[in-house]
Write a structure and sequence with these properties.
Strand 4, helix 7 (about 155-165) and strand 5 (about 175) form a beta-alpha-beta unit. The protein folds into two domains: about 15-75, Arc Repressor Mutant, subunit A (Orthogonal Bundle); about 90-175, Glutaredoxin (3-Layer(aba) Sandwich). It has a five-stranded mixed β-sheet with strand order 2-1-3-4-5, with helices on one face. It contains seven helices and five strands; from the N terminus they run ααααβααβββαβ. The chain starts with 13 loop residues before the first helix and ends in a 19-residue tail after the last strand. The model has no long low-confidence stretch (mean pLDDT about 95). With about 200 residues, the chain is α/β, with parallel strands linked by helices. The protein binds FE2/S2 (inorganic) cluster. FE2/S2 (inorganic) cluster binds near residues 97 and 134.
């Protein structure tokens, strides 16, 4: 694990400190360390999508945890970035069900629209593209996880339109990108057809 230092100090601002206290309130006082995942998420969100060493140390001290334990957690889970990344994270699921449903073409559409390869930031520094393992939305494959939202039932054309909308500063509606409701059958109802 390499940790790139870009700041020497980090502290939650008032809004994130309030959210951190909310997260801590879910655990018994003697189990403060159990809140390490939500606090790392908050620190990463505040710092623009990645965690500098100062933020890891801050979270460790906040929870009275050995710093090495927080480094271990941050480097174990893929959703935490310990290297500088662009603030908007675009993750393409490429595990078997999504791959069978065409995730290779979704990756290509993202790369073309963003002008960068998987694992890179876009040239304008706004987007970070990466592959991810199964995100638990296989029934709506293929799909993208963008910041905090899932975009599902994608085609290359819909993916391109989605990325272009983000580039224009818009916030596309999350969920299935076709007429389907959540994860109901793609062909419509098959039971309970009569009331
Ligand atoms: S394989 Fe893509 S969400 Fe499960």
């Amino acid at each position: 694990m390499s940790i790139a230092p870009d700041v020497t100090e980090f502290a939650f601002d008032a809004a994130h400190a309030a959210l951190a206290e909310q997260a801590l309130a879910k655990f018994p006082p003697e189990r403060r360390q159990s809140a390490v995942l939500p606090l790392l998420h908050l620190a990463q969100a505040q710092h623009g999508g990645w965690l500098p060493k100062a933020a890891l140390d801050y979270v460790a001290d906040y929870l009275s945890m050995p710093r090495i334990r927080v480094y271990e957690v941050a480097s174990f889970y893929d959703m935490f970035n310990t290297e500088p990344t662009a603030p908007c994270q675009i993750r393409v699921c490429t595990t078997t069900p999504c791959w069978l449903m065409g995730s290779d073409a979704i990756v290509e559409a993202c790369e073309r629209a963003l002008g960068c390869r998987v694992g890179e930031n876009s040239p304008d520094g706004r987007f970070y593209l990466r592959e991810f393992e199964c995100l638990g939305a296989c029934v709506n494959a293929p799909m993208l996880w963008i910041d905090d939202d899932y975009y599902e039932d994608l085609t290359p054309e819909k993916t391109t339109a989605l990325v272009e909308a983000l580039q224009r500063g818009e916030k596309p509606t999350p969920g299935p990108q076709d007429a389907r409701k959540v994860s109901m059958p793609a062909g419509g109802k098959t039971t309970l057809l009569e009331v």
